[in-house]
Amino acid sequence: MKQLKIRWTGHALGKNDKQGRTRPCAICHGYKYFTTTAYKEYIAVLAKEFVAQRVYFGEEIVDVTIRSSVGSRRDHHNLIEPILDALQQSGAIKNDKQVGDLHLPRPLRHGNSEDDVIEIEVQGAEYEDTFFNSVLIVTDDPR
Fold this sequence. Notes:
Number of helices: 2
Helix content: 10-25%
Radius of gyration: 20 Å
Structural class: alpha/beta
Number of strands: 7
Order of helices and strands: EEEHEHEEE
CATH class: Alpha Beta
Distance between the termini: 48 Å
Strand content: 25-35%
């Protein structure tokens, strides 16, 4: 079974760090949103780590496990989107729709001045769509 596993240390960015916005436009009175440079660089660093593993799943359904140690004020659910973006950018998976199961255990907590640690494990799923096969329909109609 194919498996991709990395351990990354540094300041992890979350989905809330993805977008920046400009000052309001004088003509349309709206904001213009853009992807921040820090987010792009973070995705590139993670993608480089995935490429170094030389494991590619193509369009296969995969299971992803993300274990982390983050600062006490961070919401670990925000780590998911950048990691899936990096997997897709690296070519390890074609699309993040391929994720069958996503495991995100409660993180270890540390002081906000310490580096975050993220362990990412991706493996081919033994995926079987059993939900619709296991539904039992019960009616009172004797026909």
